[in-house]
Specification:
With about 130 residues, the protein is mainly alpha-helical. Helices cover about 65% and strands about 0% of the residues. The protein is flat and about 55 Å long.
Length: about 130
């Protein structure tokens, strides 16, 4: 299976995507999970939106509450959720659109990484000019 076919894999989904997916699969709202973790809903929303990440102790609690491994939450590899497409049959058209979306997500991530490297290089060059 290629990375673009792995719905929750490292190339197709972020930590926040996996967290939100696991929370929904566990049948919990953000408010319920936040309460169980002892954090504010805004903190959980920040994690799910990839604006911040939980500390190790909260990550461990998340994995336990959501019945997934910490490694899966972080990397998308290991014990976690299965691809939703495997659980519910999708029409070929829907599957094709989902595959294209995941492919674009991978491309965007690669471009964002490249842009970050270029920005870092530019900062070094500008610093050298001073």
């Amino acid at each position: 299976m290629s990375d673009t076919d792995d719905f929750y894999g490292p190339e197709a989904a972020t930590f926040g995507d996996r967290l939100a997916g696991a929370r929904e699969a566990a049948g919990m709202t953000q408010a319920v999970l936040a309460k169980r973790l002892g954090v504010k809903v805004k903190s959980l929303q920040s994690w799910e939106n990839d604006l911040s990440e939980p500390r190790a102790n909260r990550l461990s609690m998340l994995a336990g509450l959501l019945n997934v491994s910490m490694v899966w939450l972080i990397t998308g590899e290991g014990e976690g959720l299965t691809d939703p497409a495997e659980e519910a049959p999708l029409s070929p058209d829907v599957h094709a659109v989902l595959s294209e979306i995941r492919s674009l997500q991978v491309q965007f991530k690669e471009r964002a990484d490249r842009l970050a490297r270029l920005e870092k290089r530019l900062r070094v060059l500008l610093k050298e000019q001073i």
